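The records we work with from here on pair a chain with its fold. These numbers are not coordinates but entries in a learned vocabulary of local backbone shapes. To see the layout at work, look at the sequence and tokens printed below.

. . .
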Amino acid sequence: AAKATYLSSVIHTEEAIDALTAAAMSPHAIIRVAAAAGLSNVSGPRAIPLAERLLEDKDAGVRKFAVRAASRIGLSALEPKLRAIAMQDNVPALRQIAEGALQSMSLKRQ
């Protein structure tokens, strides 16, 4: 199921967001990780609620992949969530990854 979740993200259709959104609600962290990894392959306003959900996930691995994906898709609407992770996440390494993502997004805008 994890591979199918990620694969759906590379199709680049509206259904990809739907599949990733469904996967993001899975009780299994590995499926949510796949959804977070697949997030980097989608863009547009429909990706924002999905990204926000994944950035708030209870699993640090899901949050890590979501932070990296948010940096790649570069939606400024996600910056407040990334800042919150950079300042408050209980995993120090994840705080550093979020800081790097914010810097990367800032450089892309210049």
